[in-house]
Structure formats: C-alpha cells, structure tokens
Amino acid sequence: MPITGRARLAGVVGWPVAHSLSPAMHNAAFQALGLDWVYAPFAVPPERLADAVRGLAALGFVGANFTIPHKQTVMDLVDEVSPAARAIGAANTLVFGDRTTADNTDWSGFLRSLRDVGCDPAGQRCLVLGAGGAARAVVYALASVGADIVVLNRSVERSAALLADLDQLFPAARLQSLPLVALADEAAAHPYLVVNTTSLGMVPRVETSPWPSDVPIPADTTVYDLVYNPLATRFLREAKASGARAVDGLGMLVHQGAIAFETWTGVAAPTDVMYKACLAYL
Ligand code: NAP
Q1: Helix (H) or strand (E) holding 94
Q2: Of 22, 67, 151, 197, which is best to mutate to test ligand 1, by the most ligand atoms within 8 angstroms of its C-beta?
Q3: Which residues on adjacent β-strands are paired with residue 222?
Q4: pLDDT of residue 172
C-alpha cells in the first residue's frame, strides 16, 4: 500500500529511540489493514520536548507515543491528562486535536495481555517485584481488578511512595509493601501471580534475576516478566524449570501499542501482526 498525500501521521518520541519496536509494530499493522498511515521514530532530547510536542501538533499528527525519558514530563505539556496517567505518574500516548490529551496504555495493555493467557488476578494474591515506573502501571492494573497485591522492592521508600499514591484509589484491592527479605515467606504461601517489573534480566545484564536462587519458585504460580529483551529471561527459564507458567513481556508491549493504535485509528488492532513484527526484531 503506497503512502499518499492523505497519509495520517503518528510516531514515537524518545531519547534515544533507535531501540524502539513501535515503528515496526505500528507500520506492520497499518500495512496489514491497508491503512494510509505512517508511524515514525523521533529522537528528541529532554530540552527539545516542548518544541517537539508543539511541532507534532502543528504538523497535524493524529497521535504519538512517548517513551523514556519523556513519560513524566510530557504530562506538563498537554491540555488534559487521563486519571490513569495522573495516578500512575506517566503518560505514553498522546492524541492531538483541539485539545491535546495524554493517556497511559501500559496498565491496560498489561491487563489485556493477562487476559490473553487466561490469567484473572481478581481477588488473587499477586507479588510485584520492583517499584519503578513499570511497577506503578502494573499495580494500577492489578488494583483496578481488585487483586491482593504485595510490592517488594530493593528501595522500601520507593514502594511505600507507590502505595501511598495508589492505595486510596482502589478500596476493593488490598495493597501492601514488604521488604525484599519477605520474598521467601510470600513465595511459600503460593501466590497466584508474580510479576517482575525490575530491569534485572534485561540486556546487557541477562544473567541477573530478581528472584533469589535459594528461594524455590512455586510450581502453581504464573511468573510474568515485563522484560522482553531477551524474551526468555533467566527468571522465566528458572520458573519454567520449576514447573511454573512463564509469560514474557512482549504481550504487554504489543497491547499497549494496540490500545494506542485503536485510539488513533478507531479500528481494532491486528495484534497477531504486531506481535510477529516485534518478534522479527528481537
Ligand atoms: P525504573 O523506573 O528504572 O525501575 C527499575 C526497578 O528495578 C526499580 O524497582 C529498581 O529498584 C529495580 N532494580 C534495578 N536494579 C536493581 C538491582 N540491581 N537489584 C534490585 N532491584 C533493582 O524502570 P521501569 O521503567 O519501571 O522499567 C523496568 C523494566 O520493565 C525494564 O526492563 C523495562 O524494559 C520493562 N518494561 C516493559 C514494558 C512492556 O511493555 N513489557 C513496559 C514498561 C517497562 P530500586 O527502586 O530499589 O532502585
């Protein structure tokens, strides 16, 4: 399908941005559906972010994704921030128009990816390892469906801050923060779901894992690693070896993109095509 003079525009803004899978994923989806759309990468340093947001709007972009290090600061540059993005403290998707709006699709993408693998955390004990930006989206998602959540992080001040921000929003969920040393007891209590939101295991530190080697991984647990580069992290390999179900982070990446795609185009995203396009680059 040729790109015409009527092509609609979207893109991703990051610093750096060369590693992003989003251009391959979105352009494959546009092509599969025969949509006259283009998705481009933009490497923008923090000091040019405001110019870039104004520039995209002036050029008639329909929307854009924002990635590290812009997910927080971009919220100060728009007319409206969704309640989810506000609560999570980060936005990854903008829609330009009379009013420019910012939303977060990481949390909803995570929930959709859980649904894909038949995982329903409502009312279930879930362990979240880490308390950074990705953890905030995961805890928001799990709390929104009424899960019973324990956040374990190296820095307890960071997990306490995360809970303080999200706790009162979801009265039906149970949220607590425990020090990392509590992991052995929590694992022995057979959690339904364990989610790694730390960067441990990601390239280049592929031999690291958030799970201590002396703590058995329960076989009746689903272990979800947000890391998708590599897909088979050491944590997931060990989880599989102990009989647990292992889920990698590519599903979340694809679904956060699919939700942005649907917001911009109004068309259901071809997630299988998007998934394959990402796999080709990993
Ligand atoms: P972040 O805000 O920098 O948070 C990093 C987290 O990792 C913190 O909890 C940090 O603990 C922990 N950590 C780092 N090094 C550690 C170590 N040596 N020992 C123990 N804990 C350590 O990063 P992020 O944005 O949340 O991203 C985290 C990961 O999620 C990355 O691998 C990213 O690629 C992935 N991610 C995936 C998706 C997806 O769609 N699949 C989406 C978003 C993010 P402290 O607080 O103690 O420093």
Answers
A1: strand 93-95
A2: 197
A3: 193, 245
A4: 80
Q: Which two tokens stand for residue 177?
A: 């923060």
Decide if 74 contacts 44 (C-beta within 8 A). Answer: no
CA distance 212 to 235: 10
Distance of CA 237 to the CA centre of its chain: 21
Which amino acid, residue 15?
Answer: W
pLDDT category at 16 given cuts 50, 70, 90 is very high
- What is the spatial distance between Cα 41 and Cα 64, in angstroms, rounded to a whole number? 10
Cβ atoms of 49 and 73 closer than 8 Å: yes
200 lines ligand 1 (CB under 6 A): yes
Please give the positions annotated as active site.
71
Two tokens, residue 222:
């689903």
Spatial CA neighbour of 274 closest among 109, 140, 56, 135: 109
Residue 246 pLDDT level (bands cut at 50, 70, 90): very high
C-beta of residue 59 within 8 angstroms of C-beta of residue 9: yes
Residue 103 in 3-state DSSP? strand
Residue nearest to atom 48 of ligand 1 (CA): 155
pLDDT in tens, 214-238: 999 999 999 999 999 999 999 999 9
Radius of gyration of the chain (CA): 19
pLDDT, tens only, 179-189: 888 999 999 99
CB 85 within 8 A of CB 91: yes
Q: Distance between CA 27 and CA 49 in Å, rounded?
A: 24
- Residues with Cβ within 8 Å of residue 269, at least 6 apart in sequence: 29, 257, 258, 259, 261, 262
